Every structure is written in structure tokens, then in C-alpha cells.
Amino acid sequence: MYIDYHDHEWGVPVHDERLLFEFLCLEGQQAGLSWITVLKKRDHYRKCFKNFEIDKVARLTDKTIEKLLLDTGLIRNRLKLYSIRSNALAFKKVQKEFESFDKYIWSFVGGKTIDCKRKGTADVPATTDISDAMSKDMKKRGFKFIGSTICYAYMQAAGLVNDHTSNCFRYKELKK
CA 15, CA 38: separation in Å to the nearest integer? Predict the structure, then answer.
């Protein structure tokens, strides 16, 4: 599962609004946990959170989220689960202001993937000045579970940065 995610999704530039939202939500769920924990629960998150359809998630009621807190297929952290709805609401505001979330989020990297040219995994940082700025701006806009480390992981997942190491076959493919 983890290898499949790496080989087919991680680091591929994402411009689809729904997928950008899904990645944002899942990165927030990861806080304090391993990515594989979230990845194993991903399909269940999709089922419980309306396939991350932004408008549908924004309309979730407290009652629905309270029920989800009892679901063992999810990470049952109240703040994390409620953050998915609040992030949908913030996401919609950004879409309205910038025409799309895609336009907003990619503006942090000048509209194109930053090739980080990593030689090894030890060269990959947990945060950067860009993820710091992104986190600060997103918090100001009402996003939750969006610290700099989560923002950098999001940038990696959604292909805003290419952090595949130079010896990885995906590095070369994504560089094209």
C-alpha cells in the first residue's frame, strides 16, 4: 500500500480541487502519527467524509461528526475530525477569493513544482520558509491542523515540491 502510494501518487502535481482537499485533510489527520496509519484508513475516510466533496463536507452537522467520533475506522480525535469540516469552509472561502484553491496553493511555489534535488532522505527537511509562510497564511484564513510540518508534507504529497531523491525512478519521471 505504501509503495503503491509512493510509486503512483506521492509527489505528482495535483490541480484537482477535490484531491487537493482530500490531501489537505489527510495530512492534518496524520499529525502525531505515521503516514501508513492514515493511508490504511484512507478509503474509510472517503466513505465517511463524502469522498471529500467540499460542499458536502462543509454541510456536515455536529451530530454527524459526533457519530464519526465513535467510528473505529477513523482516527477518533475530536479536533482532527471537526477540522475536516472547518477546513472545507475555509477552502470554499479561498476558492471564492482566488477563483480556485489550486490557484491559491500553487502561488506559494510560483505555479510550478520546486525541484529540490535531494540526494538522500537525510536531505529532506520537515519544514521550509515556504511551508512556514503557507501555514501562517492558511491559519489566518481559518484552516486547522495546518502547521508548517503538515504544510510541507502536503507540498510533498501534492507535488508542489519534488522531494523524491535523485536515485528514485519517480524523481526522473516527475522532472520531465
Answer: 22
Task: Return the bridge partners of 161, or none.
Answer: 114
Contact 141, 134 (CB under 8 A): no
Give catalytic residue positions: 5, 27, 35
- Residue 115: phi and psi, rounded to 5, are -85, 110
Kindly tell me the number of DSSP H helices and DSSP E strands found in the chain. Answer: 10, 2
159, 13 contact by CB (below 8 A): yes
Class of CATH domain 12-175: mainly alpha
Task: Report the interhelical angle of 129-140 vs 148-157 (nearest 10°).
Answer: 110
Task: Kindly list the domain boundaries of the chain, sorted by start residue.
Answer: 12-175
Residue with cell 489566518: 140
The pLDDT confidence band at residue 173, using thresholds 50, 70 and 90, is: confident
